[in-house]
Amino acid sequence: MRRRGFLMLQFQFQFHSCSSAIASLRSSASMATSSAVQDQKKVLRSEIRKALKALSPAQRSKEDFEIQSTILSSSWFKSSHRLCAYISCPALREVDTSTILSQLLTKPHSEHQVEIEKELYVPRVEDKNSNMRMFKITTMDDLVPNSMNILEPSPLDDKGNQREDPLSFVKFLKIVMFYYYVGVAFDKQGRRLGRGGGYYDVLLKKYQDLALEKKWNKPLLVALAYSVQIKEEGIIPVTPTDMPIDAIVSSDGVIPISLLAKEKMS
Ligand SMILES: Nc1nc2c(c(=O)[nH]1)N(C=O)[C@@H](CNc1ccc(C(=O)N[C@@H](CCC(=O)O)C(=O)O)cc1)CN2
Ligand SMILES: Nc1ncnc2c1ncn2[C@@H]1O[C@H](COP(=O)(O)OP(=O)(O)OP(=O)(O)O)[C@@H](O)[C@H]1O
Fold it and tell me: Which EC number(s) are documented for this chain (predicted)?
């Protein structure tokens, strides 16, 4: 998977080192290819949206329950101190994360306490240029609905202090973290189709560059998927900026994809 991304980037590099005439010819060919890929992505997004709408409520809750139970009972979840997760949006038919979130936000000393107290970071869209940040929250009251009716944290907490942002928080990055990752479709080779905003791809690229420079651990990128969102190989179109996932959790269990996931999750 990593090799695929690397080779594609390498190809782009060779491409830009050509003479300007050839480069400009190739550049228009590349734009045509990339717009064809964007069109293919749109077609697949709308196909999956239909399949998700067709899922019966009973099937959806069965898969929601199984996915969350798999995560909550796993050793890799129990031993991780810091996590990023999405706040599921029912209207978008996203795999429910409410049970995981309520466990993560349960205060210590209660009888439902998770084994290790964990820190939870959730996304907030900053602007229309694909910029998104993760902010630490400690209670669901930290969340407010945005213009798309997705719950997200306000940048300041109730005392007016800036919330913790993992990208500017060194301690956080030194510890392996799990990213519960939203997407429209996934495959068992690690390809992921997002909603088309580029938010996750941009954030994860920023993180990856920083982690490489500072020799920080790479987080495990774990996608939560209904069965209809897992496609066979060759269906999901990808571009060089698409960040591959490490693992999928579906109602059938965990599918570790990358070496890192095989080490940590098998
Ligand atoms: N729960 C959740 N939180 C999230 C995301 C997400 O996908 N789910 N995001 C992940 O990026 C960011 C918000 N970005 C979003 C981008 C598009 C849509 C959306 O409603 N898309 C419609 C299609 C709109 C169109 O094509 O015009 C859809 O998918 O049906 C929602 C969130 C940050 N927080
Ligand atoms: N690292 C990046 N730097 C700059 N632009 C990027 C980057 N990653 C993605 N983009 C741009 O964002 C736009 C949306 O990309 P794409 O359709 O792959 O989003 P997506 O993966 O579906 O969305 P998301 O990442 O939010 O789940 C494209 O124009 C793409 O070129």
Answer: 6.3.3.2
